[in-house]
Amino acid sequence: MQRLLAILVVIAMLAGGVFYFYYTAQQKVMAPGLKTGEASLRGSIYEANGKFYLNSARQSPVELDSYSLDLSQYAGQEVNLTGQYSGDTLFVNGID
User: How does DSSP classify residue 47?
Assistant: First the structure.
């Protein structure tokens, strides 16, 4: 009976270790440096190769997209915008 209990404890420990390593590896693979969440940025919008970007003095250009706004009407203008990141793209929902 003690031997069976010892074997079950070892199996449970091994299963827990495998789960832990699998879980931590998945976390690293799923989002290595991707941006998430709400953002408010200031900069100038420009278009290149059919995509829109925000050029800001503080960071490298940010790719923009929007389901509700026509970004082409803001090209070349300095704007304050709000949106939400999905990966490296900022989906704009408001421009001032």
Answer: E
| Half-sphere exposure (Cβ direction) of 25: Cα atoms closer than 13 Å | 6
Fold assignment, 35-95: OB fold (Dihydrolipoamide Acetyltransferase, E2P) (2.40.50)
Q: The whole model's pTM is what?
A: 0.63
Beta strands in the chain (DSSP E): 35-48, 51-56, 59-65, 78-87, 89-95
Q: Are 72 and 47 in contact (CB under 8 A)?
A: yes
Q: Is 54 exposed, middle or buried (0-12, 13-18, 19+ CB in 10 A)?
A: buried
- Please, which pLDDT band fits residue 30 given cuts at 50, 70 and 90? very low
